[in-house]
Design a protein that fits this description.
single chain, 356 residues, alpha+beta, D-amino Acid Aminotransferase, Chain A, domain 1, D-amino Acid Aminotransferase, Chain A, domain 2, 2 domains, nine-stranded mixed β-sheet, binds pyridoxal-5'-phosphate
Amino acid sequence: MSNIAVELTKHPKEKPADESKIGFGNTFTDHMFIMNYDEGEGWHDPRIVPYGPISLDPSAMCLHYGQEVFEGLKAYRTDDDHIQLFRPEENFKRLNVSNARLSIPPIDEQLCLEGLKKLVEIEKDWVPHIKDTSLYIRPFIITTDAHLGVHPGHHYLFMIILSPSGPYYAEGLDPVKIYVEKNYVRAVKGGTGMAKTAGNYASSLNAQAEAEKQNYSQVLWLDGVERKYIEEVGAMNIFFVIDGEAVTPALNGSILSGITRKSALELIRSWGMKVSERRISIDEIVEAHKNGKLDEVFGTGTAAVISPVGHLKYGDIEMEIGGNKIGPISQRLYDELTGIQWGRLPDPFGWTVRID
Ligand SMILES: *Cc1c(COP(=O)(O)O)cnc(C)c1O
């Protein structure tokens, strides 16, 4: 069906010598996937080319009005040396949800998945080998119209770039400290909270910087209207285990629908454990903690998979959770999700997609 042209680099780069020191988002591989959109023509010319700078007009609309969407997923190297993706079709589905919200023309999900597989296959030697490493995948779309004026663009660029990623937890699953944001908000219903778009992150930076100044690693956002209901963390969804039941905020239009969130819900349900998606107020969490019923708190997202929360601060209230140690539900989710992702456990849900 598709015709993805391939131009290979004549100057392949050195791969990282010490994979334990790769970190995150620092190095990029030799090739990237590009496709153009021009009004009247639609998306065209899908191609894989050497990784490198792109040329943009200084008036390119994405630089001024933030019409941009992105995705994040990973390729994993299994113990028997195959490369696989985790639910990649979900990422392209979500990219089209973001596209619809940002007035960007929809992509052909099948074609983009095919392009991604081809790119990862070409770059498979860039997927790191040591435990808990992966190849981070960043698809994104920008408007390129050379024009100042607030309206949807007529020209777009879809790209996929790849970045080898080191072990997220260099020293085991250490719980993080999180600070509940009371002044700033991330999103409101009717806004762009449910889309993965640049502006959401730009507007979160000062809250994040303030949290870091106070020695907290991330911000927990409350709803933008009443500042009462829990939404999510910077780039993670949030779960609570209260009195033996797992709860997470329902998708209400201002929360990003995480694929790790969805997978965690499906796993917990498969264990026969009680789980609900509903509105959760911060007062309910404070109360549960006071009564000794807040068993666990953890974030879910592609980067960290499961991120146990050991401390939660809300105004003057400082809560320590589970003795600042990872709890059994968090640990089991981490083990099962990473087991499936790296091919160390069977994949009963059919979530993984082999590349080679
Ligand atoms: C990407 C992201 C998540 C997590 O989504 P996953 O698909 O699980 O990686 C959660 N919240 C926000 C705001 C995000 O950008």
